[in-house]
Design goal:
Layout (H helix, E strand, L loop, with lengths): L4 E3 L14 H12 L5 E4 L11 H14 L5 E5 L5 H14 L3 E5 L5 H4 L2 H14 L4 E5 L1 H4 L5 H7 L5 E6 L4 H10 L5 E6 L7 H7 L12 E2 H5 L13 E3 L2 E8 L2 E4 L5 H6 L4 E3 L2 H4 L1 H12 L3 H21 L1 H11 L16 H10 L6
Parallel strand pairs: 1-12, 2-3, 3-4, 4-5, 5-6, 6-11, 11-12
Antiparallel strand pairs: 7-10, 8-9, 9-10
Helix pairs in contact: 1-2, 2-3, 3-5, 7-8, 13-14, 14-15, 15-16
């Protein structure tokens, strides 16, 4: 599974009384789906998943899935302290049609988690049984546990574990994980323009509504006939309905979670990012990635400098209440957080508006 690009970990909208505002959730998902992002993360930290009941988590996953377009990768946050509960939520996300499961590090029993054997056992249990590819989610600012690079490198050998979202903010650690997993070689299905293709996308392309041929993968050479067969280099191209695909070699993929460090992270080998700042400024985040992919390092650094202060203050310091108000200011629906989190005061709202003055969608 290709996870290159920018992924917003979407927020969960609430009514003032704390109930989930599903209509606004679906509107946000639809709006993100129309932009240049690679996919959407549902029920990550920014989604306040830790503050929801199990039933609410499932309902949010279901609502977001129904509103998302078929050309975006859908990642479900399924990490719970218990390995068996993590697996159950992962299986539910699979049933809904999600493409990837993002599993945060268990952390409540910190003394035990410091023993590498426990963390290895947790992820191996989940990965051995998961119906979805798995992404490790490391967020020590919230969990108080920072998974060592050496442990990630060891876990990366598991064929179903395809990536890490690394939110610690250390460029050195990102580089160490990239270098330590460079030997891992896997293949992912992509479009002709190297965008991700998932099983859900192939199923949609092959559905009768698209006029496809029942979902059979057909090589372009075979479909065209021997007389007009393409060159051997095109033989790997397959067609499902109107979707042309090919295979691309990918390794273990390192994504980062700090928007203010996106460009330097890409420079040492990260392939993308899951950014809370992309909730309120998805285009600004994408522009950094796009410039980097185009080889324009100067432009990528210029775009990085443009958002660095705002990203650090809004996400790193004002946290979810800051992100939600920034969304309101920038044309999405943020609304209020759920208690014990409180909305921003008037002075903090004014500060967010000033920070985003030149970062509008």
């Amino acid at each position: 599974m290709l996870l290159h690009g920018i992924f917003p970990p979407i927020t969960t909208p609430f009514y003032p009384d704390g109930r989930i505002y599903f209509r606004k959730l679906e509107q946000n998902v639809d709006q993100y789906s129309r932009g240049p992002i690679a996919g959407i993360v549902v029920q990550g930290s920014t989604g306040e998943a830790i503050l929801l009941s199990d039933h609410e988590r499932r309902e949010v996953l279901k609502s977001a899935r129904g509103a998302a377009s078929n050309d975006k990768v859908l990642i479900a946050g399924t990490g719970i302290e218990s390995a068996i509960e993590t697996l159950r939520l992962t299986e539910y996300a699979y049933e809904l049609g999600y493409d990837v499961a993002m599993v945060r590090t268990p952390h409540y029993y910190k003394g035990q988690m410091a023993n590498p054997a426990n963390m290895l056992a947790f992820y191996r249990f989940v990965c051995d049984r998961s119906p979805l590819p798995v992404v490790i989610y490391n967020f020590p600012q919230a969990t108080g546990y920072d998974i060592p690079a050496e442990l990630v490198i060891e876990l990366a050998e598991h064929p179903i574990l395809i990536a890490i979202k690394e939110s610690a903010g250390s460029i050195e650690k990102v580089q160490k994980m990239v270098e330590g997993t460079r030997h891992i070689k896997r293949k992912a299905t992509v479009t002709e323009t190297s965008a991700a293709v998932t099983g859900r996308m192939l199923k949609a392309a092959a559905s009768p509504a698209t006029g496809a041929d029942g979902g059979e993968l057909v090589s372009i050479g075979a479909a065209a006939g021997a007389a007009s067969a393409p060159k051997p280099s095109s033989a790997a191209v397959k067609v499902v309905g109107g979707l042309k695909t090919r295979e691309k070699e990918v390794g273990f993929q390192v994504l980062v979670g700090a928007a203010q460090k996106l460009e330097p992270s890409l420079a040492v080998g990260a392939v993308g990012a899951i950014l809370a700042f992309a909730d309120c400024a998805p285009t600004a985040c994408y522009e950094i990635y796009a410039a980097w992919k185009d080889g324009d390092v100067a432009l990528a650094r210029e775009k990085q400098e443009r958002i660095a202060k705002a990203a650090q203050r809004i996400v790193g310091e004002l946290s979810i209440p800051g992100v939600k108000y920034a969304m309101d200011f920038n044309g999405m629906y943020g609304g209020t957080p759920r208690l014990p989190l409180l909305p921003l005061t008037a002075d903090k709202k004014a500060e967010v508006e000033q920070l985003l003055e030149n970062i509008r969608n």
